[in-house]
Amino acid sequence: MAASDYKFEGWMGLDASSVKGNMVWQGFEPKPWEETDVDIKVSHCGICGSDLHTLGSGWGPTIYPCCVGHEIVGVAVRVGSQAEGDIKVGDRVGVGAQSDSCRGRNGDCEECASGLEQYCRHGMVGTYNGVYQNGGKSYGGYSLYHRSPSRFVIKIPDGISSAHAAPMLCGGITVYSPLKHYGCAPGKRVGIIGVGGLGHFGIMFAKALGAAKVVGISRKANKREDALKLGADAYIATDEDADWAKNNARSLDLIVSTVSSSKVCVPQSRDITIC
Q1: Are 133 and 44 in a shared domain?
Q2: How do residues 71-83 score in pLDDT, each as one tens digit?
Q3: Which domain holds residue 207?
Q4: Member of which family (predicted)?
């Protein structure tokens, strides 16, 4: 399919009022094409709190117009001659929250050389509201088509539906990465603090990675049933058990916290908790 056969259009935020739903459907100009790029016909895009923060300029001034959405799944319709990942036209692919990094193109970059492009200090580009090295802007997945450097495009396995895969590209990887990095494996006892969107993934991934025990931790007991259905072996409601820290001291090998509240306390040792 030639680029002239399709148009880049999407739901655009034109100013900070767009966070209240004042979106406009209009065309946009994707980054200038490079032979390392992939064009994707978007079929699914997850929703993330980052979308609201960005639309309202909550994380600094947004580069309007802005098209958000960074849990993108679709079909590759154009693949550059130098694309990575053995991606072919017709493949089902996805893009998460990051679309590019400097990758050492302007000199040495320790983060990119170490495979930690998400920490790139010289050219980290978000999937939306970013600027590529060639001067083009990044526009997200609330659109008909999305253009991304192939380095950050992944193939979606056949066994996962597009609707399930999309939220894994941000929410999912946010908890899967630390679980893998810090050794979640058979025999490990894992605690997941916060049983919201991230916590749901954390519980399921910990079980899938073979953890011997998975504990959901939240302030209230109203999420206990959900946590157990998702695979948790136990549940701690910190507001409803005055002795929760004492009763569960030294019972976990790994704790992943998905919350920003300071009201959930994490036991650090037999006698100390951090709140």
Answers
A1: yes
A2: 999 999 999 999 9
A3: 182-274
A4: Belongs to the zinc-containing alcohol dehydrogenase family.
